[in-house]
Amino acid sequence: MKSAVRTRKRAALSAGAAGFIAAGLIWGASPVRAAAPPAGAGAPRPAAAAGDDAPLVDAGSADGRRLRATGRLVGGGGTTCTATLVHAPGTVNPGAKALVLSNGHCADDTMGTNEVVVDKPAPEGWSYTPAYFHDNVPEHKKFTVERIEYATMKDIDVSVLRLTATYGDLAKLGVTPQTLSGRRPAPGTPLRAAHAPTDGVEPGRQYLRLSTCAATASRVALHEHTWLWRDATRTDCLGISGGSSGGPVTTAGDTGRLVGMLNTIATPGYLGCGLGRPCEGSAKGLVVPADNAAYVTPVDAVGSCLDATGLRLYRKGCRLDRGEQVNVAFQGQQTRTDTPDGPARWDARVTPDPTARHSYAAFKSGPFGVVDCTRPEGYGKPRRLTAAGLDHKDLLPAHDNLYVLCVAGGPDATLKGHDWAASLAHPSYAYARVDNTAPTVAPKADIQLFDGEDASYWVRPVYAPWEITGYKVKHGPKAATDCADTTGYRDYLGIPATLKAAEGPWTYCAIGYDNAGNATPPATFAVEPPPAR
Q1: Which pLDDT value is given to residue 510?
Q2: Which domains does the chain have, with CATH numbers?
Q3: How many angstroms separate the CA atoms of 440 and 103, rounded?
Q4: What phi, psi does 76 have (nearest 5°)?
Q5: What's the average model confidence in pLDDT over 220-224?
Q6: For 49, which DSSP code?
Q7: pLDDT for position 36
Q8: DSSP H/E element including 418
Q9: Which residues pair with 73 in a beta bridge?
Q10: Tens digit of pLDDT for each residue in 390-399?
Q11: Could you tell me which of 519, 518, 502 has the C-alpha nearest to residue 510?
Q12: Does the pLDDT value for residue 458 go beyond 70?
């Protein structure tokens, strides 16, 4: 049997050579529940900030007594989030089933742009453990989650989950619910965020922590992956990582009422905009935040639907989306203005909701973060909507930006009246990103030498999400290979090239591409032993 000693001749990017796994949304994952990487990927995700930037909370401290309603939420497959026992202001019925509040992606991180979940059984194995402190572990008690009362990632990232236990059961442990504020913190407001991070934290220290920080921007339009969020608050909270999702956020001067929940961060090590790297909408284009910017989703809409009997979506004044809009199917394309099929166009197809209450649909579009889909101004004349649906194929704007297509359904062609107003309060969306800009980074390659009797180089290109997400490559003898010559390039499919050292020196060529198909200049990599010193 031949043996080989692996010798690294050139270092890969610190984020990994073979690919990437996106972070961003800050739920923690068990080994069987980890986010799947893109094809050809496999390197670990960049480390997130965690640990001592947010100190552990002692159970007997003033903060500990205040935070007993907050604890660990374990979802299907072992995902971990943070959740808080909540109730409307006023008297609590001890016999009522208890409700906990967390992020929508803690209930289901595969929810689509427009998806709303109402009153569904919770998967088996979900649990909530309140008063989740590091120094009271013997007192920890799990309570079963029996139902998803509400969950969405449309506009806001929230879930309301019902326990098998009652408020009285929890009160016996000294756990009483918190209420939700109708306020949204202005920039500069001091904040306190409680959360139980897991990623990057030692197993024995994965308990409730407290970040003291401030709001740095308010009413932010935030885009990540397939989701469009409104009215988010950007913060400088540190110590946030997987497991922190759903952590309650309060203002420093009003620590009894929640103003929001932690929901995502700008993951260090990623570039541009994509999963793990949320970006803010603006008239001039998507704005890339600084590393570790932490975002808070508002909870005032949830508070508007809570009363003494629980969550009531049809309660007067309730502002949560009930999921009664038209259906919009779209690709979420990233495209250049000019495509092989001509100028880029919207690709949306609209069909009625299951109740078929909408017989017309109206459209308008504009830059994400600028266009207000809830206002009737700018919508075109409503078009007839049949069971077969209708297509929207208008041209996309030519300037680089993320664009939103607003789609509202109604009973007639007037765009007026109660039914249209209710529809405009929660329209459906499609989005498309126009991107004519080449990647801002150059291609890199990971080159390794396997020493031994048949010494060979192992060569693969290095992704740089989300600036370089694909490659075309070629290789050949150094003397006969010109990377500037486009002949011979092929799509990289995740299989490294194996080049025999004895037949070298070699040249490896790589052209990087972003998701819109914009290319870098060709890069040339010499595959040969380093010069002797």
Answers
A1: 98
A2: 5-15+438-527 (2.60.40.10), 51-311 (2.40.10.10), 327-434 (2.60.40.1930)
A3: 33
A4: -60, 140
A5: 98
A6: P
A7: 32
A8: helix 418-425
A9: 81, 128
A10: 999 999 999 9
A11: 519
A12: yes
